[in-house]
Every structure is written in C-alpha cells, then in structure tokens.
Design a protein that fits this description.
Elements (H helix, E strand, L loop, with lengths): L1 H15 L7 E9 L4 H10 L7 E5 L6 E5 L6 E4 L1 E6 L15 E8 L2 H9 L10 E4 L21 H7 L6 E4 L3 H12 L5 E7 L2 E6 L10 E6 L6 E5 L18 E15 L12 E2 L1 H9 L17 E5 L5 H9 L15 E2 L2 E2 L5 E3 L9 E4 L2 H11 L5 E7 L2 H4 L6 E2 L1 E2 L11 E2 L2 E2 L23 H4 L6 E8 L4 H17 L3 E2 L5 E3 L16 E3 L2 E2 L16 E3 H11 L11
Parallel strand pairs: 1-6, 1-8, 14-22, 15-19, 15-20
Antiparallel strand pairs: 2-5, 3-4, 3-7, 5-6, 8-25, 9-10, 11-12, 13-20, 13-21, 13-25, 13-26, 16-17, 18-19, 23-24, 27-30, 28-29
Length: about 575
C-alpha cells in the first residue's frame, strides 16, 4: 500500500511539471559571424517565417554560454553573445510557454571560421556540430541586444530545450572553402610557401602562419594585444573524415543572404591634424600599413601631424580578416599579408601580435592584434588624443551603433556606404561620419546607405553573408527568410533580390569538398544557364557583373561562365 501511495505522489509530481517537454521544436541552433548576428535575431523575433516573438539575449554569459568542441581531451569552449527566440505555445505566454507549437531558434556570436568549424566538427557522439551549453540560472534577465526588441527573462523550459543541442547551421561571411583554407594556413610552418588560387596559367603563393603544436588539428591560441581575449585554433574538414576525431563529417549547402562591405576606419575623429584629416586611402597604402611598412599618419593624404599609427589586425581565422586579406594586402595585385614578417623560424613569432611598424623609426607605430569585431570597433572608438588608429570591420548598424569617435575612409576614392563621400540621395553630410539610426547634425541616417558603389562592382572589399546547413533544412530556411525582413529598415547589406555583382569563384589548393548550390544567386539573376554557382573560394575574387556573365555564357556556349571558375 505504501508503494502505491508513492506511485500516486510521483504521478502527481510529474503532472505538476509544465507539459511542454514534448511540445517544443528546436528549429535551428548555430552561430558564427557577427555580421548578421543581430539581423537574424531581429528577424527571428519579428518575422512571420519564424513566428517566435519571445526573445532573450545575453552578453554576460561567460562560461555559462559557450559552443563546446568535445573533440579535444579537455573540451574547448568558445564563449559569445547569444540570442534565443521562442513562441509562447498554444496555451502559454512568453514567460511560461505551454501547449503545442513551441518553436525555438538560437544563434551565438562567435566568428565565421569558428561557426564553420562548429558546423562540420564531429565528436565521439557521431552527431555533427559543436554542443551549445546554456547553463544560466533561470528565469534569466536579458541584455536587450536586439534593437527594438525587449527581452523576456529566459524560462527554464526554453533553456533546457536548447542546452546540449548540436549546431545545425553556421553563419559566415566567407565560403566554407575559404574558411578551410584559412585553417590550413594556420597549421603550415611559418613562412612556408602555400599555393592558393589559379591566376593566368599558374598558382599564386601565400605563406603559412606557424600555429601548429605537433598535435594533429590542434594549434596555438591567437591572443589579443589589448585584453585577455583569445582565439582557439582547431581544424575541421568539409568532406571525408574529421581531422581530430576521424569521424565522418556532414553534407552541407550554402545559402547566400546578401552582400556587405568592409569599412576601413580611423580614430579618433578629434585629431583632425592627425589621421582624422584623411578622407581616402588607396589600396597600396592600405596594404603597406598592414604589412607593417608604413606607420605615420602623414602616410595618408590630407594629414599634417606625423603621429604614430597603431594598425589593428584581426585574428587570421576571422572571416573579416580573410575577406580583407585577399581583397587588399594578399591580393593578386599586392602579394603581401597582415601577418607578414612575423615568423620565428618555422613558428609564429608570438601569439599576441605587437609588431613595430615603419622599421621602428616611429615610436609607437605598430600592428596589434584584436580578437573579434567588438574589440576592433571598441578599441577604435575608445582611442583619444594623438594615439592614431587604423582598422576595419564589416558594416552594419549593429556593429557601428553610436560609435561616434570613428571616421570611415573611401578606398581608392570609392565610398562603401553612400552614393559618394559625404553625400547620398542629393543630401550633403559630414564626410566620413558613420550612418546612425538617430543621427546628430551632419551625420547620415541609415536611409542614406545605398551601397551604390558596391552594387556597381567598384568598391574592392566586400563579401556575401551566408548560412551553412544541411540541404533543405526547413528551420534554417525560415531563419534566412526572416533575416530579410530587417534589412529593409537597417540597410545592413544588399539583399540578393537587388544585387547585380558577384565574386568569381575558384578552386583552392589543398581544399576538398567544394559544394555547388545551383545556377542562380536569386530568382531574377541566373549566373549561367546550366552552370554551377557558389562553389570554391571567392575571398578576393574578381567583381563580375551578373549581366556580363550571362552574356559571356550565351555568346560562347559556356555553362560555367566568368563567375564560377571551378569547372
């Protein structure tokens, strides 16, 4: 009789637990690029495609919010900001979801190559993807990271649903092939020649960076020169077997979302006799600053004070780094690198870059490493006096929101954001001020961002933002659709529907597993009838007008075209 009573009590206790454990559907879990982190979160919380109006974000998760790679003997954790969106369910509320129809999405702000690695890696569980660890105490207050959206304290049932889930997508601003080449480069001996991509009838060389440790697939950490920030170096594969675990890696498809420019910026804006006196930087000068050859503010036109310049360099596994690297310093035109002259024999000179520039002739001139977009922009925005800085980051309202101590430059006289420097739509603005949602006098509003010169193929530093996932993943497809609902007001990227230019693609030496996704970027603009698109690397690829590519295909009976060089 006593055991029967216990069973009755147990049954009552189980009934008291919210009846949502079987009613939740985790539609998509992933992470990666900062370039579209907020846009996807805003879209997921507001779009009909996802129908998840309840949102929670945090920038203070620390060890309680990580993407975990279990392939190493001690799991390797990558911390980052996160957003989670969910629906209330048929009988619940945002704070207490219940009933049926509880859909959940989440995304972690990491970096493009970390996102790609976190999609392709396969640990001993044989389930692909990093494990999302979310162990905050609930209900957890949020950080309100998504502009225009007020956080709901995270309910326990939602936390439990996404905790322990493997990544199902990666957000990335470079192709997976470019991400894999970047990883290969880290593991090559420092200064060792590496074939990169075909030009003319030969292969162009770049050089290894020397971060190998002797343990297969595990490299030295990349450290910040400004903080305790560090970047873990772990290899991955696009096809075949995982280089660390030996397990079979997943299939993948790449869905492009739009195109974003990288903005070249200087600070502080108050030093108008110093670096803020500049308005343009040509490609060769930019390459020389990042090679460490130049280091004076007067190396830029319009500057009168020869202040030392601190040139900020991202980590080599960043999608932003690689887009910038192969668009300017390590392009087929300039043949140098942001990590040039940084070897100690076959190993990297130091894990924290703090390399004097201008042959040490200018006291304080140096290349210094920053980890992540946030540290790049905050370091620029926080400088003062005559400490002049030069840096770069992908444009978005989220990245540059209220960053008023930063001035952007044209590159080769071409503006990445407005119709022309200091003017858009016939309205004049103070040249170099970054557009803002609530602009002060002279500052362009977000509506002034036209991307006119990127769309024409004239601006040299840009990339498509993309999502990597299993083919035909419905949850990820809904998330991609949702992201487009935000860009119309924030002007963060050129949507595919209006994009008229694309990068040429090419095979990357030593990278296997390239995956083509069909013959069109968008429904209105076929690249080449019967041809393949979006296969192979494209970081630093030539800007090709889609119309010219289609004409080439028709005129020469060619099915691969000027854009896709993989066939």
């Amino acid at each position: 009789m006593k055991s029967v009573k216990y069973l009755v009590v147990l049954a009552i206790a189980l009934c008291a637990i919210p009846s949502v454990s079987k009613a939740q559907t985790v539609q998509a879990v992933g992470g990666g690029s900062s370039a579209i982190f907020l846009e996807m979160g805003q879209g997921a919380a507001t779009a009909a495609a996802t129908s998840t109006p309840c949102a929670w974000t945090t920038s203070t998760g620390g060890t309680n919010v990580v993407a975990r790679d279990n392939r190493t003997s001690t799991p390797t954790d990558e911390a980052g900001n996160i957003w989670v969106t969910w629906s209330a369910g048929s009988t619940g509320t945002c704070t207490a979801p219940s009933g049926t129809g509880i859909n959940i999405y989440s995304d972690m702000k990491l970096d493009s190559v970390v996102g790609d690695k976190c999609y392709f890696e396969v640990d001993s569980s044989l389930t692909a993807g990093c494990v999302q660890v979310l162990t905050v105490t609930t209900p957890a207050a949020g950080s309100n990271l998504l502009p225009g959206i007020t956080d709901t304290p995270l309910p326990e049932v939602i936390r439990a649903a996404v905790n322990g889930k493997h990544f199902t997508f990666a957000a990335t601003d470079i192709r997976p092939e470019d991400a894999k080449f970047a990883s290969n480069r880290l593991f090559q001996p420092c200064g060792a020649p590496m074939y990169r991509q075909p030009f003319d009838l030969g292969y162009r060389l770049t050089y290894g960076l020397g971060y190998a440790t002797g343990t297969t697939g595990v490299g030295l950490k990349i450290n910040s020169a400004f903080s305790a920030g560090a970047f873990n170096v772990l290899d991955f594969a696009l096809a075949g077997t995982d280089p660390i675990s030996g397990n079979t890696v997943p299939n993948f498809a790449v869905t492009p979302i739009g195109a974003q420019p990288i903005v070249v910026a200087v600070a502080p804006v108050t030093d108008t006799a110093g670096i803020a006196g500049a308005s343009d930087i040509n490609g060769f000068t930019l390459a020389l600053f990042y090679e460490g050859v130049l280091g004076r503010a007067t190396d830029l036109a319009g500057v009168t004070n020869a202040n030392a310049v601190v040139t900020l360099v991202r980590e080599p596994l960043s999608g932003t780094y690689n887009t910038f690297e192969y668009s300017v310093p390590n392009s087929s035109q300039f043949h140098t690198s942001q990590d040039d002259n940084f070897c100690n024999g076959s190993a990297v000179f130091s894990q924290t870059m703090n390399a004097p520039s201008a042959n040490s002739a200018v006291v304080g001139a140096a290349r210094k490493r920053v980890i992540g977009t946030g540290e790049m922009i905050n370091t620029l925005n926080g400088t003062s006096g005559t400490i002049d800085m030069l840096g770069y980051a992908f444009w978005s309202d989220a990245n540059f929101h209220n960053k008023t101590n930063i001035k952007y430059l044209t590159v080769n006289g071409v503006d990445p954001l407005l119709d022309s420097y200091g003017s858009s739509g016939g309205v004049a603005y103070t040249p170099g001020l970054l557009p803002q949602a609530t602009p002060a006098a002279g500052t362009p509003p977000l509506t002034a961002v036209s991307f006119k010169n990127l769309a024409a193929g004239d601006y040299p530093i840009w990339s498509a933002v993309r999502v990597v996932s299993l083919p035909s993943d419905a949850g990820v497809a809904n998330l991609v659709t949702a992201s487009h609902t935000v860009d119309a007001t924030q002007h963060d990227y050129i949507p595919l529907s209006t994009l008229k230019v694309w990068h040429s693609h090419f095979p990357l030496y030593g990278v296997t597993g390239a995956n083509a996704n069909g013959s069109s970027i968008n429904t209105a603009n076929d690249l080449c009838n019967g041809g393949s698109a979006e296969a192979g690397g494209d970081a630093g690829g030539a800007n090709v007008l889609e119309s010219g590519n289609k004409d080439f295909c028709a005129d020469y009976g060619n099915s691969s075209g000027l854009i896709n060089k993989t066939n």
